[in-house]
Request: fold
Amino acid sequence: MEEIVRELTEAYGPSGAEGKVRELIQERIAPYVDEQRVDALGNLIACKRAGASPAVGRLMLAAHMDEIGLIVSYIDEKGFLRFHPMGGVFPLTLLGGRVVFENGTMGVIGIERWQEDKIPPMDKLFIDVGAASPAECPVKVGDIAGFHRPFFAQGTRWVGKAMDDRIGCAVLVEFLRQVKETIYDLYVVFTVQEEIGLRGAMVSAFAVEPDVAIAVDITTTGDYPESDKMAVELGKGVAIKVKDSGMIAHPGLRRHLVQLAEKAGIPYQLEVLRRGTTDAYAMQVSREGVPAGVLSIPTRYAHTPSEMVDQRDVRTAVDLLLHLVAQPMELGG
Amino acid sequence: MLLQRLSDAFGVSGCEEEVRNILAQTVRPYVDELRTDSLGNLIAIKRARAGVERPVRVMLAAHMDEVGLMITRIEKDGLLRFQPVGGIDPRLFPAKRVVIGKERVPGVIGVKPIHLLKPEERERVTPVEQMYIDIGATSKETAEKRVKVGDYAAFATRFGPHGLEGESRLVRGKAFDDRAGCAVLAAVLQGDPYPVELAAVFTVQEEVGLRGARVAAYALAPDVAIALEGTICDDLPKEKDQSPVTRVGKGPAITLADRSVVADRRLVRLLVDTAEQAGIPYQFKEPALGGTDAGAIHLTRAGVPSAALAVPSRYIHGPASVLSLDDLEHTIALVRAVLPRLQDWPEPKV
Amino acid sequence: MELLEIVKALSEAPGVAGFEAPVQELIRSYWKPYVHEFRTDALGNLIGLRRGQRPADAPARSIMLATHCDEIGLMVTGIEEGFLRFTSVGGIDARVLPGQEVTVFGRRELPGVIGLRPPHLVPAEQRQKPLPMDELFVDVGLSQEQAQKLVSIGDPIAFRVPALELENERVAGKAFDNRASVAVATVCLMTLQGMHHTWDVYAVATTQEEVGLRGAMVSAYGLAPDIAIAIDVTFGDGPGLSDAETFELGAGPVIAIGPNVHPALHEALVEAAKSLEIPYQIEPMPEHSGTDGWAIQVTREGIPTAVLSIPTQNMHSPVEVISLKDIRRAGRLLAGFISTLNEEFVRRLTFSLPE
Reply:
């Protein structure tokens, strides 16, 4: 599984430019699904039908392909690029960083003269691609850059940029590889533009009309020096979300996931995330409403170029999904 | 000129009737269906020319509403308190003239005379809650004869030419965001049918959350959509080498991405190719700024490939904007030229 | 049952956003005599259908009354030495928390207290600064081992406040945002029982309004009503607040005007109030109404919407104060209005065009 995680995290795919990641995933899952299609916004919707018919219901699983990025807003007379963030990008994570564009052009992030103790505002920063004028510049206004960092594995930890949410994509790819028995018609959706407003999930949920929906995304942890207090830690298992700032997981679905994990002896943690949300919010309020939940991969240093997860948590997420699709759900009231 | 009538018309978000009536009368002879919906959108369907099988449905949206004010309270002394409707920089309010309600009761947003201001007061921006509109009434009773709580107020600007007479193509007026877009759309609707079906929507309540466009797109379920706007133009002298967002006189501005939408890349390419082939000047709007009806439309139902095209307008969201009639005409020309090329969407017609 | 009893019970019932089942059980019991069918949707909205007496040739029409039943509250985020750390669910001013009594919904209902260090031990300047939420704990009187057995991360916590009858038919308690409106809907349904109405009425106790109008979004989509009225609360008058932003308790229900309100619906509600001689107040809402109405209006192809509010003092604190008079009048106003609904009204809703 490490291979797919490496490939996916290193691939280029900021919000609005997910094509390369989508192609990679299309290839990897082709042997394991009945059909795939790409919708109007670029979501990859893959369908694997239930073993027996009729299916017990329609289950949508979503992970987003996009990573946060920077969109070129202006090229100045000397060939330096000004930019705006696509998604939650913090200026501190950019200083001295390297970015890459869709056509392979590399850039370095520079900063205007800034002596103060305060965090520099985004408009003090610029990207230097080595051009001396707009005419010489290999990228255009509107082009989008993503972080450029290699993946590495050390002990049980995996580190890379875009673990949010390539790790979720990897979980779903691995799940599709392993799944033998499903009583649900599975719609596995690799969504676009989550980081800029859950946009892919909104339209794909409308099209799929699931009976139940689960997003696989990351969550933060409370286990590093002076972190925000949070009960989630690396290595303690997949996090089953209770609430984040966008949604409250369907309590019956959340309880079902907990029971499944306990019966199967899968380590898990309960998650309350103060700031941040996932595609599940969009899926939950689609049409007349969908019971929705989230399986989260605990991640340190989220939205930086070096997000860290623990392999064990990732594998428990896959395991829990495999159990989920083999059994009926009683979601209760 | 239609732009003049539209610009002078009263149409703050939630109260677009006057603008809607002008547009309905203007476009009625050229469309096959004309109706309103439950939010007040004006929906005009212009069917495709005869012989086109299963025509592509193209939604073109331009919003009728402008930013303005709402009267929130009438004080004992006859002065009116207000809140903005839509995003207005509070620094624009002092000393402006407004008109209130259907009867256009004139008022002024008062300011303390400079002689009486303490130095620190001149440095501060007065919060909206402390401002007031004066309609000349001296008591609550007399004020209530003319206005009521909940009435809307718009800036009192009158449309006019701008720059050197005989030479300049610039005009000045309020609400170019988005009466310019409405003028473009009305012009596009005139003339012969296209090889696509036009679902033209003059939308309401864009300025308070893209609300009209959202329900209209749900009802119409278009195959593709283009929002037509009057957009941010900041081509003023600057200290730093930074983006003007758009420039007056450089042609219609194509959105690559703003805060509400990442424009469909195929549509953008089509607009660029069409402009280049037809010799129409065009520019790109600085990405990641502002939002348009395309933001709501592209997320309806299972998703709609969408783009936005705009007439650059200086000083939008304020009392007096400036735009170039050349840009307006080029925008109309570009839309007219791109529509036939949508005939085989998603395969662009070469 | 007397209105005062209903209002007190609704206030005291627990129902933190996302966990509304307990209060919905109570609501169901109040609405049962006046409703033909109940159902609950995927987000837990409680939908009660009261059928109208429709003449055979008339088209089916319905009005949705949205009255959110969730309240703001807290949620367990950690267990340390038997004490519970928490975060807010919905907009809570942390300054109301110290010294507050709560109920923790763990494996059992556990009474708790949000403690504050004794003033003797806190330096004077610190006592001048409010404590941020992440420095507060809930004390449930348990050891770490006991707490871990009985409480989980994610358990909801509600304020525990007995409702208090005050002078002038006023009542103080928690969650009048929005239980006061649930009471309004109850009065409306009771009043309709004695009236003739042709339109179906969907009384919906929506969920999760406090965390983003979510119940309203999906219930409106599912019901696709012809019109909708969101019943919520607005700011009641009080010291330190300008009367530009507040409304008088006891002066009648508040009818909103603004982009969120269909102008014909606004007019019709004002007309109904006048003809029923019910005092009312007008609330200008220039933008987001802050109610379920904002979500409902842009559902599907759009739904003509209005917003009716009950003035409430000390909003989003455990001592909200409302007037029973306003609740009674609002309920009667709605019932009176609903009984006038007919096809002619649907025509009034159309934005007409010139020839």
Observations:
- The radius of gyration of chain A is 20 Å.
- Residues 70-147 of chain A form a domain with the Elongation Factor Tu (Ef-tu); domain 3 fold (CATH 2.40.30.40).
- The interface with chain C takes residues 222, 228-231, 242-243, 246-248, 250-251, 254, 269-272, 274, 284-291, 333 of chain A (CB under 8 Å).
